[in-house]
TrEMBL record:
Residues 139-280 form the Tetrahydrofolate dehydrogenase/cyclohydrolase NAD(P)-binding domain. The lineage of its organism: Bacteria, Bacillati, Bacillota, Bacilli, Bacillales. This is Bifunctional protein FolD. Its EC number is 1.5.1.5, 3.5.4.9. One of its GO terms (biological process) is purine nucleotide biosynthetic process. GO terms for molecular function: methenyltetrahydrofolate cyclohydrolase activity; methylenetetrahydrofolate dehydrogenase (NADP+) activity. Pfam families: THF_DHG_CYH, THF_DHG_CYH_C. Belongs to the tetrahydrofolate dehydrogenase/cyclohydrolase family. NADP(+) binds at residues 165-167, 231. InterPro entries: Aminoacid_DH-like_N_sf, NAD(P)-bd_dom_sf, THF_DH/CycHdrlase, THF_DH/CycHdrlase_cat_dom, THF_DH/CycHdrlase_NAD-bd_dom.
Length: 283
């Protein structure tokens, strides 16, 4: 039974081990990849992710710095910091933690990040390059999802994939990556009709909606791989995914528990992007 529950620890330590070796090789050439994370305001969830990112950098030998700015920071002040980091020789990746306070335009800030340092893959140039099939920095959660699917030994080419959610940070880019891997892709969202029926046709089901335990076994074709992106804090303080794990695990194929797989893999892809950016900026 437990053999089809995807083991995040194993996956993540595998990829991070490989990255650590690469960082050691780069160190021998005098290059240490560097990541700057900017956190504006005091969102508790964001604070947890930022701490996890700093810890992960340390694990693989990436230099990291966190810029904690007060919630009242103006857009101009934030843009000044981004410009400074764009020019900093020891920084190869810049990540501005979202969401930002309401008085700051997320688009303006993302646009200001140097395309080569945009390790979130959110800059319009990187988004465009992804969609026309040119090399680019890939958004971390979607890239991690593809890595997870491949590492379970699931082949993507020719398979039917259904993504629930169409956000710019998860749903749309993961659909684009699945398409690039030659899946036949359907994107569902809050207006989708007959969603259960569509989902039941999926060999690969990716769920990113932000609704705890929304997806039950009626959405799942027997044996389908189920990737749960959702991170929902319940009233009792526990985390739940968007998938009702206990209901679905009995019918699905490989399935990701929450917490433990997609979140840590997202951070791992951030490390990978930082290494990729450092190498590209050097040459
Ligand atoms: N593990 C990780 O690394 C990450 C986890 N997350 C988590 O993933 C989840 C999704 O995040 P994000 O993409 O940013 O969320 P958004 O809130 O930006 O988008 C949610 C999407 O889900 C759709 N949706 C909402 N309710 C339904 C419904 N009942 N049926 C069908 N579709 C629905 C919305 O449709 P519409 O467009 O029509 O409104 C929208 O497209 C969250 O729980 C978030 O915390 C996010 C990023 C990374
Ligand atoms: N510019 C930007 N880039 C992002 O990539 C970004 C962002 N903003 N804003 C918020 C979302 C969310 N996100 C997560 C990262 C790690 C975990 C993670 O490590 N999760 C652990 C548990 C964490 C916990 O205990 O709360 C797990 O799922 O096992 C979760 C969510 C990145 N995001
Ligand atoms: Mg938003």
């Amino acid at each position: 039974m437990a053999d089809h529950i995807i083991n995040g620890k194993e996956l993540v330590s595998d990829v991070r081990g490989r990255l650590k070796e690469e960082v050691e090789r780069l160190a021998a050439e005098g290059l240490q990849p560097g990541l700057a994370v900017i956190l504006v305001g005091e969102d508790p969830a964001s604070a947890v992710y930022v701490r996890n990112k700093a810890k992960a950098c340390e694990q693989v030998g990436i230099y990291s710095e966190v810029h904690r700015l007060p919630a009242e920071t103006t857009q101009t002040e934030l843009l000044e910091l981004v410009h400074k980091l764009n020019a900093a020789a020891n920084i190869h990746g810049i990540l501005v933690q979202l969401p930002l306070p309401k008085h700051i335009s997320e688009d303006a800030v993302i646009d200001a990040i140097a395309v080569e340092k945009d390790v979130d893959g959110f800059h319009p140039i990187n988004v465009g390059n992804l969609s026309i099939g040119k090399p680019s920095l890939l958004p971390c959660t979607p890239a991690g999802i593809i890595e997870i699917i491949k590492r379970t030994g699931t082949s993507i080419s020719g398979k039917r994939a259904v993504v629930i959610g169409r956000s710019n940070i998860v749903g749309k880019p993961v659909a684009m990556l699945l398409l690039r891997e030659s899946a036949t892709v359907t994107i569902c969202h809050s207006r989708t009709e007959n969603m259960k029926e569509l989902c039941r046709e999926a060999d690969i089901l990716v769920v990113a909606i932000g609704k705890p335990k929304f997806v039950t076994k009626e959405f799942v074709k027997p044996g389908a791989i189920v990737i749960d992106v959702g991170i929902n804090r319940l009233e009792d303080g526990k985390l739940a995914g968007d998938v009702d794990f206990d209901d679905v695990v009995g019918i699905s194929g490989p399935i990701t528990p929450v917490p433990g797989v997609v979140g840590p893999m997202t951070i791992t892809m951030l490390l990978q992007n930082t290494v990729q950016a450092a190498k590209a900026l050097r040459s």
